[in-house]
Every structure is written in structure tokens, then in C-alpha cells.
Design a protein that fits this description.
By secondary structure, this protein is α+β, with helices and mostly antiparallel strands. Helix content is 41%, strand content 19%. The protein is extended and about 70 Å long.
């Protein structure tokens, strides 16, 4: 375990490589648990980041999620950022559908983080919208599709169909015994 200071780029340096941490920790000290395959980074006894350990030299191991607060303030920094370039899927999504709209793309990423939406679910929703050809892909359409959840239907146990169905299930259960 080591204690390292977060630099102005919201990274820590370990064995010539840089690993990202949430950008609000710039200037703070973090505790780094060093394992053979990963680095677990803690601040005030809370895990703030986990990275797969890189054994190459002078590499950046970056998660775009760590920089969303900065990108929200400075959206023009997104297109040329190392954080975007390090995630091939998000880089392709941005260049194919949101080029010139960094604010909208950042809003989408923030929404996905808040709702804990995985890249797989985001990709599935995007493909559904593109398959149906609803025009241009927008954040509003993706959010609407990602946020749609089937509302649980209340079961009315007093109606005659429900009562008959329960009776049939009981009769079938008796036959099986």
C-alpha cells in the first residue's frame, strides 16, 4: 500500500504509469492498494477508483467517468481528450453521432452514470433507435428509451378470472400429489 498525491490532471503516478481518479480529488492524498493485477484507490476509507494494473511504461490508464465534472464545465475539452480516446466505444459513438455536440454527449454520459446504465445497454438502445430509423440519434431519444421501464401492473386478486385461475392451480397441484 502506498499513499500518493493526485496531480493537476486527476491522475496518480505509479511505476511510470498514470491512473485516473475522480477530478474533485486534485491535490489530495489517496491510499493505493497495489495488487499483482489491479490498483484499488481509496480516499477517506472509500474506494474511488479501481484500475487494471498496466505493466507497460509511460501509459495512461484513464476512465472518462472521472472527468465528467470537468467536461461539464469545459465541454470543448472533450473531443481532444485522452479520456475520450481511451474508450474506443465512446469515441466511436461521439464521432459518429455527437460530433460538434459535446454538451449533449456529456449529458448522456452523466445520465448513464447516475442511472448505472452499462455500455452494453446503451449500445443496445442506440442500435434499436438506428434500426427503426427515427431520424437523427439524439440524447433525448436515448434517454427516453433507456429510462422506459415497464411499470409493474397491480394484480387484482378479487376479480373472477384470478379466483378461477387460483382454483385451477390448486386443483392441478392436488392431482400432482
Amino acid at each position: 500500500q502506498e499513499q500518493l498525491r493526485v496531480d493537476k490532471y486527476a491522475t496518480i503516478s505509479f511505476c511510470t504509469n498514470r491512473y485516473s481518479v475522480p477530478d474533485h480529488l486534485v491535490g489530495e492524498f489517496v491510499e493505493v492498494n497495489i495488487l499483482s493485477d489491479q490498483l484499488a484507490i481509496h480516499h477517506q476509507n472509500k474506494r474511488v477508483a479501481t484500475h487494471e494494473r498496466c505493466y507497460l511504461t509511460h501509459e495512461f490508464v484513464i476512465e472518462i467517468e472521472h472527468y465528467l465534472a470537468t467536461f461539464k464545465k469545459k465541454p470543448g475539452a472533450l473531443p481532444g481528450s485522452v479520456a475520450l480516446a481511451s474508450n474506443i466505444y465512446l469515441k466511436a459513438l461521439y464521432t459518429d453521432h455527437f460530433r460538434g455536440e459535446p454538451r449533449a454527449f456529456i449529458d448522456l454520459l452523466l445520465y448513464c452514470r447516475e442511472q448505472r446504465i452499462s455500455e452494453e445497454k446503451l449500445d443496445e438502445s442506440m442500435r434499436r433507435l438506428l434500426d427503426v430509423k427515427y431520424g437523427r440519434l439524439t440524447v433525448e431519444k436515448l434517454r427516453a428509451l433507456l429510462g422506459n421501464q415497464a411499470a409493474p401492473r397491480p394484480i387484482n386478486t378479487d376479480d373472477s378470472i384470478c379466483v378461477k385461475a387460483k382454483q385451477q392451480l390448486l386443483d392441478i397441484s392436488k392431482l400432482m400429489n
